[in-house]
Request: fold
Amino acid sequence: MLDPSSVVYEADRPDPRGISIATGELYDVAADPWQWHNRWDDPALRRHLLTTFAPELEHLRAAERATIVAALESATSFAAWDNLRVEQRLSAAQARAAVTTTVVGVLGQIGSRSLDR
Reply:
């Protein structure tokens, strides 16, 4: 159901696509080596989320899809990762487990009557 994401929130060095993260910020260091353009609200990242979860989202009604996408955006946001790593002081492995648990929980709500409201 879940494949490793190509969005990297934390790295000691850039990944193969050149994305590296400074705490609290999201940069494409290959395209922006001086880190002038913070990508935290980049529409490309939202498209990546929609593509990643397309199989789970494609058959949903608009209202349910909007709710699930909002929850997935929150669960996979840099703010969530930063909170887990900095505020809660979790290791990277613990933070990945927490994000995975949250995403699986969100996806488990698909079809739930609570989303029909």
Remarks:
- Residues 59 and 65 are 9 Å apart (CA to CA).
